[in-house]
Structures are given as structure tokens and as C-alpha cells.
């Protein structure tokens, strides 16, 4: 390791930019790296034609202080081939006051693909709950695949205001006890696919927040963590909507929750057209849960975010909570058209019988399964 590294990039072919590091494999100065990255970004973003690609080479580590890559860019599509490792600085000094909440941010960049097998290391232990590691704001037609994300300071990946997003083949890991380290956090975004990934963190594997729709999640292994969550919606009386969320062929292993929908008392809006199909629970807590009583001591209003058309089909495996199905709906409209079919779970605790509890939940369930769900109202 050397202290004074030089970092350049050079152009190979017409629009492929390759980072070149002189004399070392670990760039220890974030001032130098940020400068080099921003220069490379300017060229990449301004490139026209060909296949504008920035290659961050294998076997190298780049220490990066917070930075934003801003569009709009000239080319319809851009590629970042991340093979090496991006590392957040090990002390807070690199975080200036204006830039507390985001580490690596892309804004208004359309047609971006990030791939390449590299790693993004947030060094989270130093400032957990402080900052999002990789965030995308207003990035349409976004692809992120084949990366490893470790120890984010807070959310590993945040998607806000983006349409047409495909996220796949990621490995996202943080310790089970790390606070607010969501895997992928989605808000105000439409038409997203998350698939074929492993997410094990200290908070939600995937969190779907307000004004999001057409979100498909498939073949994701989640755990440890708090499960796949819709919400919490309606905080402080807010109007929020989520619809068309489909979770299929996912596994929850040792998670605190499984398929969860949570709303704040006093909120407005709706969560509807949501399905969980072919889900496997391995020692999961609260495998199926809707909770409309999210704490908000300020809210007096007895209205709720409306929950309707939610189905659970083919949920199998083991629950650490005897109350394996819990529909705790508000006393206003309650939850409508909840469908439970082919749920076949056993207790992870020997000798315990699983059961379901409903409050003001309307819907149907197929008979003779475990737990039986006789508590749904017509
Ligand atoms: C998302 O999932 C739904 C329900 O399974 C399916 O009908 C739809 O085609 C999927 N969308 C995409 C883009 O895969």
C-alpha cells in the first residue's frame, strides 16, 4: 500500500474509459479518487455513440468520499463495469455537512447499467444509520447486476423516482444487528424487477414505500433481516399509495418477519393488488403479517391506509412465532379481499401449534391448512 497513489484513466477504443492506477493497488486518498471519478464521469456522460463504458478494474480498491454522478447524459445508454472495490472512508471527516445522507449517488441518469462482479463496501460499522450507500434518483431504464454490497451505513441501495429498473444477481450483506441497513429501498418508482439475489442485513431485505407500483420480486433469498415489507405507509397522516406488488419464489431464512405490510394509524391512501406466491419460510418470525397499528401516538384520526386485494398462495416452511398469520387491520374499513391459499407451515418450536389471528380482516382462505385461518370475515 502506498500513501501517494496516482490515479488516471485512459481511453481505450473510442468511448471506453479505463481507470489506471500507478504504483499501488489501494488508493488511499479519497480526494484523489473523487477527482478522478468525476473527470471520468464527465467524459462518460458526455460521450456519444459507441458503448460508453467506465471500467473500474479488478483487484483494486478505491477509497471514495461522498459524491454524485449527475445527468442528463448525452448517450441513451451508459455502462459502468465495476470489477474492483469501492470503499467508504473509515472516518467521518470525509463527510461534509452538505452531504450527510448519501454516499454514492446517481441523479437523472437514464439508461445506466452497472455490472461487473465488483464490491461496494460502506464501512458501515463506523456510522450505521447515517447514510445511504448507493442511491438512484430519477434514473429511468436502470440495470444493476452482479455486484456485492457489504456493510452499508444505512440502506444499501435506494431507488427513488425511477421507472423501468432491473436489479439482479446481487449479494447484499450486513450484520443482523446493524440498524436500518435495508437491502433495497424503493420509493416513488414504477416497473421494477428484483430477482435472483441474496439479501441478508439488519433491516428489511426489500422495503417498498409510497407511490410505487408494478414491483416484481422473484427468486430472492432473504435473511437475516426484517423480511420484505410494504410500508410503513401513512406516517404522520400522510397520503401514500402502493399497488401491483408481486413477490414470487422467495425464501425467508431466520428473518424477524416474512411477508409484511405495515401502515401508520391515521394515514391515507392505499396498498392494493399485492401477491405473495410460492414462498418458503425457514425459521421465520411473523411469516404473514399485516399491521395497521404502526405506532403514532400523535394520530387521533381513526382512518387508515386502505388495504385490499392481497393474496398469499403456497406459503410453506417453518415459523418461529406460533401466531404465524396475523392480520391486524384498523377499525375503520379494515382490510378487504385477503386471500389465503395453500399455506402449509409448521412450528419451528417443537410441540407448538400454529394459529392465525385477525382483526377486522375480510377475505377467504382455503380449508384444512396449517395454520387454519378461520378468522377472516366475509
Ligand atoms: C409481474 O408479476 C405479475 C404477477 O405474477 C405478472 O403478471 C407480470 O407479468 C410480471 N411482470 C413482469 C414485467 O415480469
UniProtKB/TrEMBL annotation:
Q: Which residues form the active site?
A: 226
Q: Name one GO molecular function term.
A: polygalacturonase activity
Tell me where it resides.
Secreted, Cell wall
What Gene3D superfamilies has UniProt attached to this entry?
Answer: Single-stranded right-handed beta-helix, Pectin lyase-like (2.160.20.10)
Q: Which SUPFAM superfamilies does this UniProt record tie to the protein?
A: Pectin lyase-like
Main subcellular location of this protein, as a coarse class? secreted
Biological process GO annotation list? carbohydrate metabolic process; cell wall organization
Q: Which PROSITE patterns match?
A: POLYGALACTURONASE
Coiled-coil ranges per UniProt:
none
Q: Does the keyword Acyltransferase apply?
A: no
The protein's UniProt keywords, in alphabetical order, are: Cell wall, Cell wall biogenesis/degradation, Glycosidase, Hydrolase, Secreted
| UniProt cross-references to InterPro entries, sorted A to Z | Glyco_hydro_28, PbH1, Pectin_lyas_fold, Pectin_lyase_fold/virulence
Family listed:
Belongs to the glycosyl hydrolase 28 family.
Instruction: Kindly provide the name given to this protein in its UniProt entry.
Output: Polygalacturonase
Amino acid at each position: 500500500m502506498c500513501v501517494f497513489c496516482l490515479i488516471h484513466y485512459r481511453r481505450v477504443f473510442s468511448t471506453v474509459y479505463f481507470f489506471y492506477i500507478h504504483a499501488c493497488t489501494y488508493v488511499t486518498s479519497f480526494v484523489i479518487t473523487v477527482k478522478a471519478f468525476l473527470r471520468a464521469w464527465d467524459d462518460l456522460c458526455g460521450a456519444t455513440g459507441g458503448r460508453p463504458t467506465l471500467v473500474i478494474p479488478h483487484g483494486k480498491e478505491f477509497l471514495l468520499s461522498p459524491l454524485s454522478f449527475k445527468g442528463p447524459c448525452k448517450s441513451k445508454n451508459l455502462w459502468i463495469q465495476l470489477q474492483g472495490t469501492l470503499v467508504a472512508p473509515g472516518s467521518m471527516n470525509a463527510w461534509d455537512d452538505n452531504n450527510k445522507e448519501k454516499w454514492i449517488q446517481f441523479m437523472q441518469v437514464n439508461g445506466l447499467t452497472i455490472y461487473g462482479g465488483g464490491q461496494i463496501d460502506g464501512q458501515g460499522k463506523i456510522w450505521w444509520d447515517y447514510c445511504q450507500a448507493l442511491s438512484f434518483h430519477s434514473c429511468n431504464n436502470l440495470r444493476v447486476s452482479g455486484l456485492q454490497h457489504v456493510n452499508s451505513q444505512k440502506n444499501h441501495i435506494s431507488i427513488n423516482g425511477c421507472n423501468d429498473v432491473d436489479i439482479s444477481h446481487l449479494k447484499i450483506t450486513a450484520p443482523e444487528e446493524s440498524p436500518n441497513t435495508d437491502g433495497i429501498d424503493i420509493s416513488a418508482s414504477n416497473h421494477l424487477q428484483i430477482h435472483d439475489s441474496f439479501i441478508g442485513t439488519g433491516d428489511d431485505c426489500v422495503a417498498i414505500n409510497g407511490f410505487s407500483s408494478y414491483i416484481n420480486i422473484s427468486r430472492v433469498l432473504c435473511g437475516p433481516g426484517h423480511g420484505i415489507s410494504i410500508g410503513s405507509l401513512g406516517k404522520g397522516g400522510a397520503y401514500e399509495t402502493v399497488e401491483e406488488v408481486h413477490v414470487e419464489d422467495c425464501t425467508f431464512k431466520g428473518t424477524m418477519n416474512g411477508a409484511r405490510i405495515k401502515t401508520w394509524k391515521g394515514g391515507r391512501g392505499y396498498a392494493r393488488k399485492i401477491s405473495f406466491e410460492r414462498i418458503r419460510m425457514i425459521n421465520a418470525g411473523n411469516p404473514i403479517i399485516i399491521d395497521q397499528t404502526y405506532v403514532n401516538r400523535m394520530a387521533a384520526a381513526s382512518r387508515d391506509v386502505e388495504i385490499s386485494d392481497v393474496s398469499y398462495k403456497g406459503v410453506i416452511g417453518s415459523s418461529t412465532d406460533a401466531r404465524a398469520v396475523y392480520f391486524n387491520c384498523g377499525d375503520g374499513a379494515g382490510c378487504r379481499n385477503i386471500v389465503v391459499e395453500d399455506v402449509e407451515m409448521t412450528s419451528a418450536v417443537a410441540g407448538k401449534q400454529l394459529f392465525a389471528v385477525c382483526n377486522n380482516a375480510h377475505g377467504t382462505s382455503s380449508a384444512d391448512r396449517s395454520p387454519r385461518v378461520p378468522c377472516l370475515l366475509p
